[in-house]
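Lab channel / #folding
Pinned by the channel admin:
"Please post every new chain as: sequence first, then the structure tokens as a reply. Keep commentary short and put observations after the output so the thread stays searchable."

First post following the new format, from NK:
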Amino acid sequence: MAILVTDPIAQDGIDVLSRYTIKLGLSREQLIETLPNYEGLIVRSETKVTAEVIAAGRKLQVIGRAGVGVDNIDVDAATERGIVVVNAPAGNTIAVAEHTLGLIIAAARNIPQAAAALHEGRWERAKFMGVEIRGKVLGVLGLGRIGTEVAKRAQAFEMDVIGHDPFVTEEHAARLGIRLVSFDELLEQSDFLTVHIPATVQTDGLIAAAELARMKPTAWIVNCARGGIVAEDALLAAIDSGVIAGAALDVFQVEPAGSNPLVRHPRVVATPHLAASTVEAQVNVAVQLADQVIAVLDGRPAPFAVNTPSVSAESAHVLAPFARVAQTLGNLCTQLAEGQFRNIEITYSGEIANHETSMLRAAAIRGLLQDISEENITLVNATAVARARGLPIVERMSSAPESFANLVTVRVETDRDEASVSGTLIDGVPHIVRIDEYWVNLAPSGGYVILTHHVDQPGVIGRVGTLLGEADINVSSMQVGRERPRGPALMLLSVDEAVPGQTLDKIRAIPGLTTVKVVRM
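Reply from TO:
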């Protein structure tokens, strides 16, 4: 089997490969011309593996990404052509965790500033008086693989570790020595706040001016995750005005970030996206990836396959279409449920209940976790990731309602509320047919949906529509589920654009509306 490597990886990984060709810096045209001769392709982030590139790989069986993110690979196009996509999510965990602790210590002791002054011939001991991190509160936002490793190391420095992650149970956090708190408490109590969550629509600008204002004036923010999670303009203003003490940043919204004013700020410790850049991490990633590529080419399962479930051919024929349903339901539950996850229940009804449902369980978990975890959640590793977070998953089998031959229901219970969503296939397309106790019919097709719980009475729908019209937001569809006339009801409004916060506030002020939520479909 011939394997093409188009981006640099550690030699240890190359040594694992039996046959390989290294061609760095290929243009799109050169890659398309070269790829037909290869069964395997290994890339980092430099090479863009588009649908056009994948179509050119007539013999291609596996695409390997040396790292975590696969956003430079068209996974859907690869899946359609039966090509396995693998990555190496665990290889750089320790490197990132250590870099995070390094930034915390550098910030606490003014190490970069003191070193720069000494390089310039200035001996300024008093100017660079620091603080000890022992006894300080470390707030960890996101308790996945990396966040957990950071917490372990911080405890060795005798820091008081608190964390916020709605998708980790209190019992699991307690076993790690981490005290779970709300997001607001995390902001208010942290002396150092370190970010370990993915960059998604929900987390973009998650920490902005209002959040920074809740922090201690002596607090520092540390970000080795993704740029944009901390709003950079707000962060710069907060540091300049003394709202917080400073920041330690390895990632930026636009990279390279040489012109970013945060990089040159005297109260910012900055590194150029180095967290995963250690010799050991690069070796681990390369070897882990090479082993998986060879496994796929040998016909063996790969532990970090992004797009390959492991089920029998008979079950796959029945269940594969419902995996999209289960993932959609899980993702919707994550957006609807508020608070700390306590229990997750998945119910299979109809013919699908007669098969091994591990694929559907993994798909539902992937939907629940994919937008909130820094790990790449796949059908292969989803159950293991949920187990690592201490999430209890209960599966049930039941007969299907008369209206549907098959039905999947995902129910999430938190410390504050619960959400239950049911779905099925209609003409081969996933449809959400029940939200909580209300029967609906919603086909996810992009855009956003506004959900309101209200009392069914004249004028409510009109008032909401008027406010959306004033905000120039187009409504593509509307439906109402209700218990009885003039009783409790659920309204679903599908809209083409994101709804501004000001408009949502006006909608929430309409008499009779008890809850208003917006979900991304």
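NK: The first strand starts at residue 3 and ends at 5.
TO: also worth noting, The longest helix spans residues 313-336.
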